[in-house]
C-alpha cells in the first residue's frame, strides 16, 4: 500500500531523516522480521504508469462523482478579510498586467516584457496562498509580513501596468479624450465614475468588446435616467429603465424587474439585511464555524437612511447601522442609469469591526425555487443543495465560492457577486453572504478595524 510522506503538511518532500528511518525499517524487516517490508517509491510518473497497467489488466477503481466536500474548517472561507481582499485584488492586477504587457510586446518592439517583475509578484502571491495564510488561520506576525509583501506586489504591478499602457500609447494623466479598456472576454456596457486630472469628477458610459471601449460623457441629462425619491418616512424608491427598488428602513423590500415583469424579493422578505451570529466553535476559532451558530441569528436594525446621489446618471441611498457600542456599518445601495440586460444593483459596505467571536453576514431572500444553487469555483462551477435532507446536505450550511453564487429556476435567476468574499450559503430561497468573523486565536486581532 503506498503511503505519501514528507516535511510538514504544506507539500514538502522527504528529508534525510525520513530516508534514514525507511532504511532502518527495511533493515529490521529483512533481519528481525515482525515489521512489514517497506520500499521507497519511484517517481510520480512511475506511480501512474503502474496504475495504468492495473487498469489495462482489468482492475476496477472506485469512482467518486461530485464534490469532495470537507466537513470542517468552514470558518476559513471568511477569517482575515483584509488578507483575502489583497489576494483577490492582486490576482486581478496580475491578469491585467499580463494582458497589457502581452499587447505592448506585440505593439512595440522596444518594449520588454516584465518577466522578472511578474515572477516576483506571482511568487509572492503564491507564497501568501499557503494553507494557513490565505485561510486566515496563521498568527498575527504572518499577516504583518503578508501586508508588507502585498504592498510591494501592488506597487510593482501598478508600475508594470503603467509602463505597458504607456507603450500602447495610452496617456496615464488622462489628457485628451478619455478611453476605457475592457480586459474581459465579453462585451460590457457600464456607467463609470471618472476622475480626470484637471477636471471635476463626472460619469461616463463605456460600451465595447474586449479592448478599447467607446466612452460617452454623461455631463447632461440622459434618455434613461436613474431616479430616487422618498415615498414616506423611512421608505425610498430607486428606479432606472430595468429595475424599481423599494428600500424600507435600509433594507430592500421590493425589487421589480421591468423586463421580466416579476418581483425578485420573496414575499415579506428583506434583502440586504445584515445579520449577526454568535460564533463559538468547539475547537479551532480561526478555522471552524459550527452549524449551531445559525440558531443565534440576530437582525441588525438600521438607524438612518440618507440620499447621497440623486441622479440622473446614478442614484444612491446610504444607511447607517449600529452593531454594538464599538462597531458600526454604512451600506450604500446604488442604481445606475442606461441599464441593459446585464444591469445590476450595487451595494458598498463600510464596517468598523470591534467584536469578539461574532459572525457578520448579509441576506437576500429571493422569489426563486430550486433544489440546487450554483457557485463559481476554480476553473468552473459547482452545484450544491439548497436543502438539509441528509446529514451530507446539512454539512454544507456554509460553503466556499469565488466571485459569485447563483440561484436560478427555468428562465430566471438571481446572482450575488462579491468583492473578495469566499463564504456563502443558500438555504431554500435565502442567499446569505458571509462578511466578517472575530476569532481570537491564533491572531487576537483578526479582522479588527475598518
What descriptive keywords fit this protein?
450 residues; Substrate Binding Domain Of Dnak, Chain:A, Domain 2; 31% strand
Description:
The chain is an alpha+beta fold and 450 residues long. It is 22% helix and 31% strand. The longest helix is centred in the middle third of the chain and has 28 residues. The model has no long low-confidence stretch (mean pLDDT 92).
Determine the structural class based on helices, strands and strand pairing.
alpha+beta
**Rg over CA atoms:** 26 Å
What distance separates the N and C termini?
Answer: 52 Å
Q: Please report which band the strand proportion falls in: under 5%, 5-15%, 15-25%, 25-35%, 35-45% or over 45%.
A: 25-35%
Short synopsis of the structure:
The chain has about 450 residues and is α+β, with helices and mostly antiparallel strands. Helix content is about 20%, strand content about 30%.
Tell me the layout of helices and strands.
Blueprint: H1 16-31, H2 44-56, H3 81-107, H4 115-127, H5 140-167, E1 180-182, E2 188-194, E3 202-208, E4 211-217, E5 227-232, E6 235-239, E7 243-248, E8 251-257, E9 262-263, E10 273-278, E11 298-299, E12 302-310, E13 314-322, E14 328-336, E15 346-352, E16 358-365, E17 372-377, E18 380-385, H6 391-394, E19 399-400, E20 404-409, E21 412-417, E22 423-427, E23 430-437
Antiparallel strand pairs: 1-4, 2-3, 3-4, 5-6, 6-7, 7-8, 8-9, 10-11, 10-16, 12-13, 13-14, 14-15, 16-23, 17-18, 17-20, 19-22, 20-21, 22-23
Helix pairs in contact: 3-4, 3-5, 4-5
Amino acid at each position: 500500500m503506498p503511503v505519501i510522506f514528507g516535511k510538514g503538511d504544506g507539500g514538502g518532500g522527504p528529508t534525510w531523516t525520513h530516508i534514514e528511518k525507511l532504511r532502518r525499517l527495511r533493515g529490521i524487516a529483512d533481519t528481525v522480521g515482525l515489521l512489514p517490508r517497506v520500499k521507497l517509491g519511484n517517481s510520480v510518473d512511475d506511480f501512474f504508469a503502474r496504475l495504468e497497467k492495473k487498469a489495462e489488466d482489468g482492475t476496477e477503481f472506485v469512482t467518486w462523482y461530485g464534490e469532495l466536500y470537507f466537513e470542517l474548517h468552514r470558518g476559513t472561507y471568511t477569517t482575515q478579510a483584509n488578507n483575502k481582499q489583497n489576494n483577490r485584488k492582486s490576482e486581478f492586477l496580475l491578469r491585467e498586467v499580463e494582458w497589457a504587457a502581452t499587447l505592448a510586446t506585440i505593439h512595440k518592439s522596444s518594449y520588454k516584457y516584465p518577466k522578472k517583475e511578474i515572477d516576483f509578484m506571482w511568487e509572492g502571491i503564491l507564497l501568501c496562498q499557503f494553507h494557513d495564510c490565505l485561510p486566515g488561520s496563521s498568527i498575527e506576525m504572518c499577516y504583518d509580513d503578508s501586508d508588507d509583501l502585498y504592498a510591494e506586489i501592488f506597487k510593482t504591478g501598478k508600475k508594470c501596468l503603467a509602463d505597458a499602457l504607456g507603450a500602447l500609447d495610452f496617456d496615464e494623466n488622462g489628457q485628451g479624450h478619455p478611453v476605457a479598456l475592457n480586459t474581459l472576454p465579453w462585451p460590457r456596457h457600464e456607467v463609470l465614475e471618472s476622475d480626470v486630472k484637471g477636471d471635476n469628477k463626472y460619469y461616463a458610459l463605456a460600451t465595447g468588446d474586449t479592448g478599447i471601449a467607446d466612452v460617452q460623457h454623461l455631463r447632461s441629462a440622459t434618455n434613461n435616467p436613474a431616479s430616487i425619491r422618498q415615498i414616506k418616512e423611512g421608505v425610498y424608491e430607486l428606479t432606472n429603465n430595468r429595475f424599481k427598488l423599494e428600500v424600507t428602513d435600509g433594507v430592500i423590500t421590493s425589487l421589480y424587474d421591468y423586463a421580466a415583469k416579476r418581483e425578485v424579493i420573496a414575499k415579506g422578505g428583506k434583502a440586504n439585511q445584515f445579520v449577526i451570529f454568535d460564533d463559538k466553535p468547539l475547537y479551532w476559532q480561526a478555522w471552524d464555524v459550527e452549524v449551531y451558530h445559525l440558531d443565534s441569528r440576530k437582525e441588525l436594525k438600521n438607524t438612518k437612511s440618507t440620499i447621497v446621489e440623486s441622479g440622473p446618471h446614478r442614484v444612491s441611498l446610504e444607511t447607517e447601522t449600529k452593531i454594538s457600542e464599538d462597531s458600526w456599518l454604512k451600506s450604500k445601495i446604488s442604481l445606475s442609469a442606461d441599464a441593459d440586460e446585464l444591469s445590476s444593483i450595487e451595494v458598498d459596505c463600510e464596517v468598523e469591526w470591534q467584536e469578539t467571536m461574532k459572525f457578520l453576514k448579509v441576506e437576500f431572500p429571493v422569489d426563486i425555487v430550486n433544489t440546487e444553487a450554483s457557485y463559481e469555483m476554480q476553473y468552473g462551477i459547482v452545484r450544491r443543495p439548497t436543502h438539509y435532507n441528509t446529514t451530507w446536505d446539512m454539512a454544507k450550511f456554509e460553503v466556499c465560492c469565488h466571485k459569485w453564487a447563483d440561484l436560478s429556476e427555468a428562465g430566471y435567476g438571481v446572482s450575488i457577486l462579491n468583492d473578495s468574499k469566499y463564504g456563502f450559503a443558500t438555504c431554500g430561497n435565502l442567499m446569505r453572504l458571509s462578511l466578517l468573523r472575530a476569532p481570537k486565536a491564533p491572531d487576537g486581532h483578526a479582522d479588527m478595524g475598518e
